[in-house]
Amino acid sequence: MGNAKVTVTVTCKAKGGLETRLKEVLTALINPSRAEDGCIDYYMHQSLSDPQVFLLYMNWRDEGAFGRHVQSPHVKEFDDRPAAALLAEPYPLTRWRHLG
């Protein structure tokens, strides 16, 4: 299981009026994340029904690659600074196993 591809989703909800700023900050994570060893793909979406909500959808080669991503400077920078100021609530992160 540890060497299997892992899909991760993260849902971020901006504080009222901060959607544009959160979008900018999350967009800045895309290219460095895609450049990481083990990143298969990394996408960001914005809810059509609630523009305060963003979904990050990513696939990693394995749990180790995702673990290194979480410890990367750009992710740690997001968690250390803008996350608390921009997010309305803690972001749920879910891991998924591909079944078919």
Task: State the main characteristics.
100 residues; alpha+beta; Alpha-Beta Plaits; 4-stranded antiparallel sheet; 4 helices; 4 strands; 37% helix
Tell me what the structure shows.
With 100 residues, the protein is of the alpha+beta class. The protein has one domain: Alpha-Beta Plaits, CATH 3.30.70.100. The protein has 4 helices and 4 strands; from the N terminus they run E-H-E-E-H-H-H-E.
- Mean residue pLDDT: 94
Strand content: 25-35%
N-to-C CA distance: 15 Å
Number of strands: 4
Q: Please trace the helix and strand order, writing H or E for each element.
A: EHEEHHHE
Can you tell me the CATH topology? Alpha-Beta Plaits
Number of domains: 1
For the record, what CATH class applies?
A: Alpha Beta
Output the strand order for the largest sheet. Answer: 2-3-1-4
**Helix fraction by DSSP (H/I, runs of at least 4):** 25-40%
Question: What overall form do the CA principal axes indicate?
Answer: globular
Number of helices: 4
Poorly predicted regions? none
Kindly name the structural category.
Answer: alpha+beta
Summary?
Helix content is 37%, strand content 28%. The protein is an alpha+beta fold.
Break the fold down into its secondary structure elements and pairings.
Blueprint: E1 6-13, H1 19-34, E2 39-46, E3 53-60, H2 63-70, H3 73-80, H4 82-86, E4 93-96
